[in-house]
Amino acid sequence: MAKVLIPTPLRQYSEKQDSVELTGSTVGEVLGALTTKFPDLRKQLFNDEGKLRSFVNVYLNDEDIRYLKKDATPVAAGDTLSIVPSIAGGSGDPPVSLSNDEIMRYSRHLIMPEVGMEGQLRLKSASVLLVGTGGLGAPLGMYLAAAGIGRIGLVDFDVVDFTNLHRQIIHGTKDVGRKKLDSAADTIADINPNVKIEKYDTMLSSENALEICKNYDLIIDGTDNFPTRYLVNDACVLLKKPNVYGSIFRFEGQATVFAFPGGPCYRCLYPEPPPPGLVPSCAEGGVLGILPGIIGLIQATEAVKLILGAGETLVGRLVLYDALAMRFRELKLRRNPECPACGDHPTITKLIDYQEFCGIPHHEPPPAPGLKDGEIDPVEVKEMMDRGSPFLLLDVREPHEYLICSIPTSKLVPLGDLPKRVNELDTATEIVAHCKSGVRSAKAVDFLKQAGFKKVKNMKGGILAWSDKVDPKVPKY
Amino acid sequence: MIKVDSKAWDVMVAHAEAKFPNECCGAMIGKIDGDQKHVISAEPMENAYAGAQGARYELRPEDLMDADKRARAAGMDLIGIFHSHPDCDAYFSKTDLENSCPWYSFVVLSIKGGKFDHANSFLPNAEQTAAEKEDLIWPKS
Any residues with CB less than 8 A from the CB of B4 and at least 6 apart, and which? Predict the structure, then answer.
């Protein structure tokens, strides 16, 4: 005789008994005796094919019969059989629907048949990764959130700075000094609390890019450096996910969709990165504050179209925008069958070292402590002025920079004009050259030395250091 | 109808909030009178799901068997299973349905941003193809 314990909900089929003594030499025989005694139990435990239902486990004493001999497991007198359900679950794939509040919020979308309820649910089910929450990431994050994208990932490690505010409208003046991630997430949550925001407080790298990108339907590149552009491109090609690309510089921008199946990738357009330093960044060359709004929203439009499956996307087309001329142009792009990433015989099968690929040293050599030969500290320059020492302070910046701020008594000769205006300078007079941060004036000093000037020095740190160390009334830009 | 006492409810909510952003699970024990179920105590259990637990849970059958034994010893019954849905609503998902058992009430607690939001109870069928919503009464205070 073996004892079978009946779970509470099944006692209605066992004449309310919580355990039953039955005979049988195997588990199969005991269960057979059980369902013969209580026929109504059969349907609970076995399916139509006579097999134990998937959620039914049978334990002999403390062991699961699946790990013994299943139905043929021998049963001895005094053994106890327990019927234990296997239970699992999870929110898994939630059925997506719109609440009444959401229906109201998206009503201007819902009444267009090109979007409609089906499209809006697609947007809600979609996930988008924004790499960077700067100039491009700002309008992208705000409009994609407003449009009802269900899940937005944000990657950034930077902190909001005053110089960001003229274009990065997802951050406000009150956010200066905060993490861009936190500030961007607050703005998005305020625009649309239905959006699930996922924050990655890191720099996208070869180590983490695939892991992060794989969780999203689309990747949008809003960065402004070449290593990250190649990294995002290669990650998207490897993961077969579209890369919605945009870039901006001064008054011009471009946008397209890379790595869409069958379409070109960034490497088809630019197989090699430019030599480091050739293409200035926005910090070096400047950018019209409104420009990332236009380009970012072209990217946002493409992202929404890709999700909806509507319209004609920019796959295979590069849009070029010139804000000064207010002109859009378009270039056809084709996938290059020889492309090392997306070609017919790709050689890039995993992520590489993109800093090295772009010729950027991993660690900038640390600046030499103190003054290098031929350099002079701004404080010493001020002392020379106060002593009345005869010397010429030579400002080699551009005229429009001179209008922002200047150091009294300085003479402006832009670096580019120096060769033809060198005769204005006297080799007998001591010269101190300066620019914004000291890079251009170092070039000016080199040039002047080659031209035969002996008494030339470079003011270390430029007018920025002057503002810090000598006169804080001089604004920094 | 399933009614949960405040002591049991507090245990369930505290367990669900503590496990956020992962899913939690556990058993509900009490008495049944006809179709009136009365949960008197709740037992938190370990989520035994092997992968990421943000949207999945699994109960160890052994844990359930032990809970059933303790319930019997206390003169009570194992009535239901509870689990949480972090940052989403308390619906009965496809995953929930496909791994369910028709013998118990399944209480789902929606935890949003780490705090309890709302809850529902479901009664799945034996074919694991549909679940009926059951009236759930909990101390709302």
Answer: B12, B28, B39, B42, B107, B136, B137, B138, B139
Check residue A369 and give its pLDDT. Answer: 63
Indicate which of A87, A124, A125, A195 best probes the interface with B, i.e. most B CBs within 10 Å of its own CB: A87
State whether B72 and A18 contact (CB < 8 Å): yes
**Chain A residues whose beta carbon lies within 8 Å of the beta carbon of residue B126:** 43-44, 53
CB within 8 Å of chain B, chain A residues 60-89: 62, 64, 82, 84-89
Query: What pLDDT is attached to residue B141?
Result: 54
Cis peptide before B21 (omega within 30 of 0): yes
In this prediction the ipTM stands at 0.90
> Do A346 and A268 have their domain in common?
yes
Per-residue confidence at A163, pLDDT binned at 50, 70, 90?
Answer: very high
- pLDDT mean across residues, chain A: 92
| Residue A441, pLDDT score | 93
Distance between B17 CA and the closest CA of chain A, angstroms: 16
- Residue A366, in any domain of the structure: no
A346, exposed or middle or buried, with CB in 10 Å at 0-12, 13-18, 19+? middle
Instruction: Name the residue ranges covered by the structural domains of chain B.
Output: 2-137
Number of Cβ pairs closer than 8 Å across A and B?
112
B84-141 pLDDT, tens digit per residue, is 999 888 999 888 998 999 999 999 999 999 999 999 999 999 888 889 999 999 997 5
Question: How far is the alpha carbon of A57 from chain B, nearest alpha carbon, in Å?
Answer: 8
Mutation target for A interface from B29, B31, B33, B103: give the one with most A CBs within 10 A.
B103
Q: Class assignment of domain B2-137? A: alpha beta
Q: Which tens digits make up the pLDDT trace of A178-219?
A: 999 999 999 999 999 999 999 999 999 999 999 999 889 999
Contact A94 B93 (CB under 8 A): yes
**Phi/psi zone of residue B122: left (φ > 0), alpha (ψ -120 to 50 degrees), beta?**
beta
Do the chains contact at B99 and A86, CB–CB below 8 Å? yes
Domain count, chain A: 3
The residues, any chain, with a CB within 8 Å of residue A236's CB and separated by 6 or more, are A213, A219, A242, A243, A258, A259, A265
Q: What is the pLDDT of residues A246-262, one digit of tens each?
A: 999 999 999 999 999 88
pLDDT band of A373, cuts 50, 70, 90: confident
Give Cα A194 distance to the centre of its chain.
20
Q: What is the CATH number of the domain that holds A405?
A: 3.40.250.10
Torsion of CA B32, B37, B42, B44, to 10 degrees: 100
Residues of A tagged active-site: 282, 435
From B65, B88, B106, residue closest to A94, measured CB to CB: B88
Residue A362: the pLDDT is 66
Within this chain, do residues A276 and A352 fall inside the same structural domain, yes or no?
A: yes
- Chain A residues with beta carbon closer than 8 angstroms to that of B103: 7-10, 44, 85
What are the tens digits of pLDDT across the range A314-360?
999 999 999 999 999 999 999 999 999 999 999 999 999 998 898 87
Alpha helices (H) in A351-422, listed in sequence order: 354-357, 378-387, 399-404, 418-421
> Are the beta carbons of A87 and A39 closer than 8 angstroms?
no
Domain housing A67: 2-85
What pLDDT does B106 receive? Answer: 96
